[in-house]
Amino acid sequence: MSAVLASERRKWRKPPFIRNPLARWGLIVFALAYLVLAIGSMEVNWQRVYEGLERGKQFILAFSHPDFTSRWSDISAGMIESVIMTITSTAAGIIISIPIGLGAARNIAPLPVYYLCRGIIAVSRALHEIIVAILLVAIFGFGPLAGFLTLSFATIGFLAKLLAEDIESTDRSQSEAVKATGASWLQWINYGIQPQVMPRLIGLSMYRLDINFRESAILGLVGAGGIGATLNTAFDRYEFDTAAAIIVIIIVVVMVLEYLSGMIRARLQ
Amino acid sequence: MAVSIKNKGQKVWQLRDRNSQILRWFFLFIAVSIIMYCWQKISSQTEWFFVWDAPRIAGDIGSRALPPRWSYIDQLWEPLWDTINIATLGTLLSLFFAVPIAFLAARNTTPHPIFCRWPALLIIVSSRSINSLIWALLLVAIIGPGIFAGTIAIALRSIGFCAKLLYEAIEEIDEKQVEAITATGASRWQVMAYAIVPQIMPSFAGITVFRWDINIRESTVLGLVGAGGIGLQMQSSLNVLAWPQVTLILLIVFIAVIISEMVSAKVRAAII
């Protein structure tokens, strides 16, 4: 009797996100300890930060009067180079990542090919674009070619991985039906697999176009062409109004690309 | 169904009829022309002599870069710790801003569909469009080089990413649960805490870990512009052409990224 009363008197509480209490408290203690250590090891020069606030204010104010005109020739040349690199590298990246994506799909590729393609994808994904760009600039020299190669390489890791995952989740019965008609390997891929993954492949390619443009804006920092070099110079000279103009252009282009890709994806699905 | 007729009067099945085929070839032609034009632009700015020479140079760098200078690893532990801190603290910091922005941007929770939603969307787009390296460049110019600038740069870039995915998750919640909680007479905040938050918690945790994984990769290069982390060591090694050290750094970056990706994949698999 008293046991029932006691249980009735107990108030309802929200169930915790992590059920196991040991894991929950262990995680909390670990997180706190880490935070203390991490923040402790961070040295902040508050004096310098405080001095910088004035410059930060100037930078934010620069957005109210971005200066497009005084360095327009540099900006437009850099922008065009960025766009060119984006288009070519996305195209090349798609063409290369289709065979690699096919090879990295477990349900159509033999095991050695699978491991090879997965290895290529892992390397491409692990190395940041800038690191690849540094190496390629060292090898191929300054200019947009290094940027083009970098972005193509980065596109492979992204597109091939997602394409392979999409191929792995395709409907088996469709591809088997095509195979049962006596189709060759190429016909099998073309009529059994390709129609199933095409909408997603186009969507992903548009998304990658968008990413490649954003990435192309930083490759100039290491001499691989694009708008980044101009932006870097503007920051170095504290020409915040020019920098603001470049950033505004980047944001507008990204917005337009995002809108376009959203429209195309909505039509496909 | 589209059928083409061969010269003997035989009918052959085709996927598309003639008009749509011509249209497709036309679009392909335009796309190829644009790409070729762009390629020509790149080609005209390239010193092809260097490119033909590239295999030799690559071999040369490769022979200098191997074997990695293992003893240099003693100087890398601290930058590596800094790199991980930049990524982790940056992700945490970004969440403080991303969560309220996501609630302002989601159609079903925003206080006002224009005055609150549009500014929130603008913040998301601006934060997403600017690469974290550019944020770092900017912050190094404003508040000086160091880990602090790197952390803020990572945070600024992550706000847009996390807020975008989170507000999409909020828009996809089950409205029935919200109605049920509202029907009990719950206040606005109680509805938030008991109807919305439990539904988005799994995607919130997933997004956080996913972004953390990306941030580890991004923070490895922030040092190149002076924002702390292992990139600083890479920059100084590159400046003196110490290729064996660069190889070691790349190797460590590679391992760190693979481990973080594995952790993130494990956590996400456990949550979903």
Describe this structure in words.
The complex is a heterodimer of chains A (269) and B (272). Chain A has 269 residues and is mainly alpha-helical. Chain A has a single domain, classed as MetI-like fold, CATH 1.10.3720.10. Chain A is built from 11 helices and no strands. Chain A has helices spanning 2-9, 21-40, 46-62, 72-103, 111-126, 129-140, 144-168, 172-180, 185-219, 228-236, 240-268. The longest helix of chain A has 35 residues, at 185-219. In chain A, 40% of the residues are buried. Chain B is an all-alpha fold and 272 residues long. Chain B has 2 domains: 1-35; 79-271, Orthogonal Bundle (MetI-like fold). Chain B contains 11 helices and 2 strands. A two-stranded antiparallel sheet of chain B has the order 1-2. In chain B, a hairpin with a 5-residue loop joins strand 1 and strand 2 (11-13). The model of chain B has no long low-confidence stretch (mean pLDDT 84). Chains A and B meet through helix 2, helix 3, helix 4, helix 5 and helix 6 of A and helix 1, helix 3, helix 4, helix 5 and helix 6 of B.
What is the fold's blueprint, element by element?
The complex is a heterodimer of chains A (269) and B (272).
Chain A: H1 2-9, H2 21-40, H3 46-62, H4 72-103, H5 111-126, H6 129-140, H7 144-168, H8 172-180, H9 185-219, H10 228-236, H11 240-268
Helix pairs in contact in A: 3-11, 4-7, 4-9, 5-7, 6-7, 7-9, 8-9, 9-11, 10-11
Chain B: E1 3-5, E2 11-13, H1 18-44, H2 48-52, H3 54-65, H4 77-105, H5 117-129, H6 132-143, H7 147-171, H8 175-183, H9 188-219, H10 230-239, H11 243-271
Antiparallel strand pairs in B: 1-2
What is the level-2 CATH architecture name of the largest domain in chain B? Orthogonal Bundle
> CATH superfamily membership of the largest domain in chain B, which one?
MetI-like
Low-confidence stretches of chain A: none
Overall average residue pLDDT of chain A:
83
Structural class of chain A: mainly alpha
- How many DSSP helices of chain A? 11
CATH architecture of chain A: Orthogonal Bundle
State the separation between the terminal residues of chain A, measured CA to CA: 61 Å
Low-confidence stretches of chain B: none
Number of strands of chain B: 2
How far apart the termini of chain B lie comes to 44 Å
Please name the CATH topology of the largest domain in chain B.
MetI-like fold
State Rg of chain A.
26 Å
**CATH T-level fold name of chain A:** MetI-like fold
Q: How many separate structural domains of chain A?
A: 1
- Main beta-sheet annotation of chain B: 2 strands, antiparallel
Greatest interface by residues involved: A-B, 63 and 58 residues
Q: Secondary-structure element sequence of chain B?
A: EEHHHHHHHHHHH
CATH superfamily of chain A: MetI-like
* Structural domains of chain B: how many: 2
- Residues in β-strands, percent of chain A: under 5%
